[in-house]
């Protein structure tokens, strides 16, 4: 039993009383708190609080705004302990063993916001540990609600809280161990938030039973639709059926729910056990007796005291792994290896566990041993290739995928993975051929369509590329992260006199790049409104053609149709030659810009003011490869005649000549700072897109195999006329990039000197 004497467990809810009490009860399983509080108006008839939960009366909270104002300004009197764990009805503790004492060394820790790529991404408020010190700091009259309470704390006023009150926000690695929301967890953190994640934290049978308790409002919500899609993706057919039926009770004409119900009926008879004639749980498509069952120990295999053989343990481990419970899976695989140290499936899947945790040094030896023990197993070679690719051993990864395909030529997944490995070597035409072969074998393979889209776009084939790009809505990598909006989707048809909602997705840079299409929609006679990341709200409102910009979570005025921003290029038949690329299309706040200009001051010495951003998001190896170490760029700081300004939102630990202004800590401030600079030097992150959109000269430092929008060879970009591209000549070679940038800076200084 975990004991947390310094923590009060709190839930605030005046709408979903029974579900809120369920979340509190779940959070109390195997955890003792100083006190448990349910702040609510009144319990409905038939709803009874379990023992140990104190009911505290408050006035009804009839909106998200009312809830946010209460949390921000009125929660303090109810909490006497050093910390509180604030949960909502759709988030609770799921893994008490994941508790880390360092959680309580912070003043705020919650799941990451995946859609930001700066240093302020820790803050989801649906399941958070907060200190009483933070609640006291929030009484500062300068702190007022902006959007929702979590973004108000974690972004809008984070700099003030850190500077004036010493508030400590958790780093991203600690946040990942604490909770998950939009991004899939690595292992099972302490808790989670989000109705759409219920399928990942409870057995399908429990979810199926719970679905009937959802209100009509929940059943008709966008989160319920996302839950349905996730259940389908995980093949949880009993849950799919129950969730779809509940949606249809609230919305009888919902076509997606009807399709899901039909799909569930077709699959409900499938036996999920692992008998000899069942499909192997490895996903190969073969019968278990002809796949991993054939590798099992002959005759009388060793067993645990509970009678479980290595094969049974691996089968159970795979089920846990599919639920993202990596700790349970690891225990089963290790127990299997204690019975048989060279049992290939246990070696293999334990390696996969380490791979999922990005622990490549542990994963690769296990995956290699599995391949040596069972060299005829195509899936083993395929997963070894994935780990090799993550370790930037591209040539070895290609060889592993080719070996998998030699054993199983119709392995669509291996063809797709081969394409990714080839693309990592900048062999994009070969990658396209591999993706097409995968789709010949599996025409509805969403991930292969998505991979093909990115390769085609990198080659400049925007017509087919953007058509394939629409498959992102079905690709598991992105589907759960994409916002869902009610109403019809605009397909480019008649727009005159209609209000069209443009919806942001993915990263800040994607939004900044694609908002350029708003004037083209407005030119068709539409009133254009935008829903996007809150930190971009003011900037997007300055874009030509945009009538109103909303932050995610805000109430949106009526609209006739919606369309994702990143779908507009395809709808508008954009090609590299027709990209709308004005000198600038966004404007920094004039007052903020003037203030920054005063702080930078006048330059009598004709020094060049250069902003620099060397790192973006690094939560995956793929994204980390976009970033460069500050030490690699340090020779640039010795060049005379340059004043360097940091555009990183976080403070620098190293000793450097960089000027750090507080303005860089939020996007409006960064935009104002960029507008006052002579040049921006950035890796492929949102700062590069911001500079290009503001019309500032921007030099972009690119990894060897860059993102599709930078294409493959040119030193210029059709998207940003002011951009100059500096490319790695080989994977990981940032030193050569720094040397090229240094040479270009010297030339720029000479030209400026006349």
Task: Describe this protein's structure.
The chain is of the alpha/beta class. The protein has five domains: 2-193, Spore Coat Polysaccharide Biosynthesis Protein SpsA, Chain A, CATH 3.90.550.10; 197-267, no CATH class; 288-479, Serine Threonine Protein Phosphatase 5, Tetratricopeptide repeat; 499-571, Rossmann fold, CATH 3.40.50; 590-753, Rossmann fold. Helix content is 42%, strand content 12%. It has 33 helices and 17 strands. The strands form four sheets. The protein has a six-stranded mixed sheet. It is globular and about 80 Å long. Mean pLDDT is 87; it is low at 269-279, 281-285 and 295-301.
Discrete helix count = 33
In CATH terms, what is the fold-level topology of the largest domain?
Spore Coat Polysaccharide Biosynthesis Protein SpsA, Chain A
Gyration radius over CA: 27 Å
Largest sheet: 6 strands, mixed
pLDDT < 50 stretches: 269-279, 281-285, 295-301
CATH superfamily of the largest domain: Spore Coat Polysaccharide Biosynthesis Protein SpsA, Chain A
Structural class: alpha/beta
CATH architecture of the largest domain: Alpha-Beta Complex
């Amino acid at each position: 039993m975990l004991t947390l004497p310094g923590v009060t467990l709190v839930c605030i809810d005046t709408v979903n009383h029974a579900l809120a009490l369920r979340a509190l009860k779940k959070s109390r399983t195997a955890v003792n708190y100083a006190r448990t509080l349910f702040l609510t108006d009144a319990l409905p008839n038939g709803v009874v609080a379990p023992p140990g939960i104190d009911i505290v009366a408050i006035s009804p909270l009839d909106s998200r705004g009312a809830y946010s104002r209460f949390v921000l300004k009125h929660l303090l009197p109810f909490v006497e302990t050093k910390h509180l764990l604030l949960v909502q009805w759709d988030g609770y503790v799921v893994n008490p063993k994941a508790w880390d004492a360092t959680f309580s060394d912070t003043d705020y820790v919650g799941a990451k916001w995946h859609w930001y790529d700066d240093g302020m991404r820790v803050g989801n408020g649906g399941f958070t540990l907060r200190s009483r010190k933070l609640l006291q700091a929030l009484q500062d009259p300068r702190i007022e609600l902006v959007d929702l309470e979590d973004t108000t704390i974690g972004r809008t006023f984070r700099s003030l809280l850190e500077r004036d009150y010493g508030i400590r926000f958790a780093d991203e690695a600690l946040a990942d161990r604490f909770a998950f929301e939009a991004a899939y967890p690595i292992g099972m953190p302490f808790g989670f938030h989000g109705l759409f994640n219920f399928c990942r934290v409870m057995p399908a049978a429990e979810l199926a039973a719970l679905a009937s308790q959802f209100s009509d409002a929940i059943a008709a919500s966008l989160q319920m639709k996302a839950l349905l899609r996730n259940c389908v993706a995980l093949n949880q057919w009993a849950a799919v059926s129950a969730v779809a039926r509940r949606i249809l009770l609230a919305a009888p004409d919902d076509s997606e729910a009807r399709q899901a119900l039909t799909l569930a009926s077709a699959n409900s008879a499938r036996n999920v056990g692992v008998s000899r004639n069942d499909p192997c749980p490895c996903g190969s498509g073969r019968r278990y007796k002809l796949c991993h069952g054939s590798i099992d120990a002959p005759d009388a295999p060793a067993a645990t005291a509970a009678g479980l053989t290595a094969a049974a343990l691996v089968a159970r481990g795979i089920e846990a792994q599919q639920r993202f419970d990596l700790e349970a899976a690891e225990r089963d695989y290790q127990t299997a290896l204690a019975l048989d140290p060279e049992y290939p499936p246990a070696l293999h899947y334990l390696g996969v566990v380490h791979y999922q945790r990005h622990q490549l040094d542990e994963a690769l030896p296990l995956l290699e041993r599995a391949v040596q023990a069972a060299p005829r197993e195509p899936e083993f070679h395929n997963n070894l290739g994935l780990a090799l690719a993550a370790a930037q051993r591209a040539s070895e990864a290609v060889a592993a995928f080719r070996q998998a395909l030699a054993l199983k030529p119709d392995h669509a997944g291996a063809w797709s993975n081969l394409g990714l490995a080839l693309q990592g070597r900048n062999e994009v035409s070969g990658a396209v051929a591999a993706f097409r072969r995968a789709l010949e074998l599996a025409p509805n393979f969403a991930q292969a369509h998505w991979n093909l889209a990115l390769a085609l776009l990198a080659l400049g084939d925007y017509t087919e590329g953007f058509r394939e790009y629409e498959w992102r809505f079905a690709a598991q990598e992105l589907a759960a992260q994409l916002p869902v909006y009610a109403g019809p989707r605009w397909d480019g048809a008649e727009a005159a006199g209609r209000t069209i909602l443009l919806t942001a997705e993915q990263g800040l840079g994607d939004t900044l790049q694609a908002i350029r299409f708003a004037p083209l929609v407005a030119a068709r006679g539409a009133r254009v409104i935008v829903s996007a990341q809150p930190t971009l709200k003011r900037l997007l409102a300055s874009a030509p053609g945009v009538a109103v910009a909303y932050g995610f979570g805000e109430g949106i005025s009526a609209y006739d149709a919606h369309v994702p921003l990143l779908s507009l290029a395809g709808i508008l038949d954009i090609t590299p030659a027709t990209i709308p690329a004005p000198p600038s299309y966004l404007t920094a706040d004039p007052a903020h810009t003037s203030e920054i200009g005063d702080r930078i001051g006048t330059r009598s010495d004709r020094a060049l003011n250069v902003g620099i951003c060397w790192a973006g998001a690094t939560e995956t190896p793929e994204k980390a490869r976009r970033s460069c170490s500050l030490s690699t760029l340090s020779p640039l700081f010795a060049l005379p005649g340059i004043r360097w300004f940091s555009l990183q939102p976080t403070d620098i630990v190293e000793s450097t000549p960089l000027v750090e202004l507080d303005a860089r800590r939020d996007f409006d401030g960064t935009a104002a700072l960029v507008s006052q600079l002579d040049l921006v030097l950035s890796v492929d992150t949102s700062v590069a897109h911001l500079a290009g959109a503001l019309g500032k000269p921007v030099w972009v430092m690119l990894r060897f195999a860059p993102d599709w929008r930078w294409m493959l060879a040119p030193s210029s970009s059709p998207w940003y006329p002011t951009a100059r591209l500096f490319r790695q000549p080989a994977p990981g070679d940032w030193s050569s990039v720094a040397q090229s940038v240094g040479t270009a800076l010297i030339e720029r200084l000479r030209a400026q000197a006349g």
